[in-house]
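Input (structure):
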């Protein structure tokens, strides 16, 4: 008898619960709906806010977030924002960014090269080795 109970429990454990959805979906609310609920909550009395939240299946955090968005004074803030990756930059912007990085890299290399040349000049002066001049274009 005890073995039958264990088998019955095992088969029930593998059956999906009909009360829960297979895959939960993120709820999204329209700006119009948010305004309606905020207006209703604003007019509600002391004990009525909880009843509104229960009736609509909302949490107090929804109301808090929507009020904050409303206080930022835009209906756009109440509209759903797209989730996920941001759209790619314009190809010319990408190229400009790549070129800026390359220029910065070359400027760092130039600074290093100028520092090395200065050190070589000082070493040659200390050792008394004359430097070969490359012409009138050389800096002093």
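Output (sequence):
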């Amino acid at each position: 008898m005890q073995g039958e109970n264990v088998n019955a429990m095992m088969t029930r454990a593998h059956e999906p619960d009909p009360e829960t959805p297979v895959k939960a979906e993120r709820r999204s609310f329209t700006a119009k709906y948010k305004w309606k609920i905020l207006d209703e909550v604003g007019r509600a009395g002391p004990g009525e806010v909880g009843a509104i939240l229960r009736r609509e299946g909302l949490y107090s955090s929804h109301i808090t977030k929507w009020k904050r968005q409303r206080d930022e004074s835009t209906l756009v803030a109440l509209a759903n924002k797209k989730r996920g990756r941001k759209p790619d930059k314009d190809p010319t912007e990408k190229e400009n960014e790549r070129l800026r990085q390359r220029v910065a890299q070359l400027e760092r290399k130039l600074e290093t090269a100028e520092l090395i040349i200065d050190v070589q000049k000082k070493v040659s002066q200390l050792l008394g080795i004359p430097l070969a001049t490359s012409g009138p274009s050389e800096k002093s």
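Notes: Residues 25-82 form a domain with the Arc Repressor Mutant, subunit A fold (CATH 1.10.10). The mean pLDDT is 80.
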